[in-house]
UniProtKB/TrEMBL annotation:
CDD domains: ALAD_PBGS_aspartate_rich
Family designation: Belongs to the ALAD family.
E.C. no: 4.2.1.24
NCBIfam families with a match to the protein in the record: PRK09283.1
UniProt keyword terms in alphabetical order: Heme biosynthesis, Lyase, Porphyrin biosynthesis
Pathway: Porphyrin-containing compound metabolism; protoporphyrin-IX biosynthesis; coproporphyrinogen-III from 5-aminolevulinate: step 1/4
Lineage: superkingdom: Bacteria
PANTHER family: DELTA-AMINOLEVULINIC ACID DEHYDRATASE (PTHR11458)
Subunit field text: Homooctamer.
Protein name (database record): Delta-aminolevulinic acid dehydratase
Catalyzed chemical reaction(s): 2 5-aminolevulinate = porphobilinogen + 2 H2O + H(+)
SUPFAM superfamilies attached to this UniProt entry: Aldolase
Amino acid sequence: MSRTFAPFPATRLRRIRRTEALRGLVRETQLSVTDLIWPVFVMEGENEAHPVPSMPGVSRLSIDRVVAAAREARDLGIPAICLFPYVDPALKTEACELAWDRDNLSNRATRAIKDAVPEIAVMTDVALDPYNANGHDGIVKDGEIVNDETVEALARMALAQAEAGADILGPSDMMDGRIGAIRAALEANGHPNVTIMSYAAKYASAFYGPFRDAVGASGALKGDKKTYQMDPGNAGEALRLVERDLTEGADMVMVKPGMPYLDIARAVKSEFRVPTFAYQVSGEYAMLMAAAENGWLDGEKVMMESLTGFKRAGLDGILTYFAPRAARLLNG
Ligand code: PBG
């Protein structure tokens, strides 16, 4: 008996989800290896790899090992590697002079990578915290993080990094006016082509905990970073910061952390249409890995799902500790 008059859905959206072939055809967002930037921790020594306990699968690496990681990145098709130095606590000072030393650990690592694997883009971090006796991103005077003096130090630091061969400078300090000062220093000193990816909307986040362990800053940090990093409750301010940094000469902007701030990422991308990145930070990596190691989540699947989410939100790329693992999966 026919059921002509039986109710049926006017639109069967499940039709296009029926097979992997159909799902592939209609997929709107595709993660690609060229979307990834791989953050690595650099340490002194030779042939050293010290696991970071709160970041399973991540180790601090001596320069020779970082060069090997850069080769691996190249072979996987990852376009960029981002360096964070682990500095001996005995070398940290209140004035942070080591930050602009041409031969500091980060600059030596940059040179070594650019010598061995020139096609990889090297990104460096412009902030004083690895070199600061008190763990802050800026110079501290009478208990205050002083802005303008810090900006001068950051410009010197950025120049030393550019001279070492860095392709992308990543000011992560959140001082006012640093992008303009760094851009001016680069122009005046023969580095007009060095790009700046501004950590424009960087929040005062508890998700940075494992990173601070990895770079040995946890013990050093006195107080918190709330007078310069953003309040997690704010969105409009993020747009003001991005606009300001673009005006001062940033080529690309970043939102950080990633997953809890995808609304900000989306807003930035749709408002400014500039290359926009997110940093899936150490705490995001740690929580996914911890759950995976407990068997509570499928590590590979949540990794790929989280990275796809960044792309779907409109981002051009992602800084992620998952970079090599995701790249291996993407390359099949
Ligand atoms: C420091 C810096 C931090 C991160 C990148 N650069 C930590 C901080 O601001 O305290 C965090 C990265 C991560 O958590 O993975 N300028």
